[in-house]
Amino acid sequence: MSNNMKIEANTVASVHYTGTLPESGEVFDSSEGRDPLSFLVGHNQMIPGFEANLMGCGIGERKEFTLTADEAYGQRDDEAVMQIERANFAQLEQEAALEVGMQLVAQMPHGPAPFTITALTDDTVTADFNHALAGESLTFAVEVVDVREASAEELAHGHAHGPGGHHH
Questions:
Q1: Nearest-5° Cα angle at 29, 80 to 128
Q2: Cα–Cα dist 155/117, whole Å
């Protein structure tokens, strides 16, 4: 059966992708050697510009595009950088030494919040809660490998199921 479906809201798109930083060409993420990434279109699973650039694409199409920070992970927010008392990390430090550049996850009232340690003193840990790619333009090379109708269950849950999608 030939599938002529195009990526649109409430379809499940499966793509292979490589994301690079346009200035350096450094690869920050890729599905190379893994299952394709599957996502439910139109349900805020992906950064806004990624989905927008793929609308109307069909299986086998390849596309390359560069997103501004606003279309990707947003601008850096200086208020998202916090000083935390180092004593709060005492239990963790029994298992591993804290280092600048280390990525950890804080349990916040609204859920888990990843952060990067950007500075350390004897008394404080400087935690940057900005997304690692905030403030960056991002280039994506994408190949569409499958497009299908989303199931009622996927629409109810707001994400794709099955290979490359969300598993319960």
A1: 15
A2: 37
Distance CA 161, CA 98 (A): 37
How do beta strands 11-20 and 138-149 pair? antiparallel
Contact (Cβ atoms closer than 8 angstroms) between residue 56 and residue 5 = no
Counting every residue written for the chain, the total comes to 168
pTM: 0.81
Domains and CATH numbers, the chain: 11-73+133-157 (3.10.50.40), 78-128 (2.40.10.330)
Q: How do residues 19-72 score in pLDDT, each as one tens digit?
A: 999 999 999 999 999 999 999 999 989 999 999 999 999 999 999 999 999 999
Strands (E), 11-160: 11-20, 27-30, 37-40, 62-67, 81-85, 103-108, 111-120, 124-128, 138-149
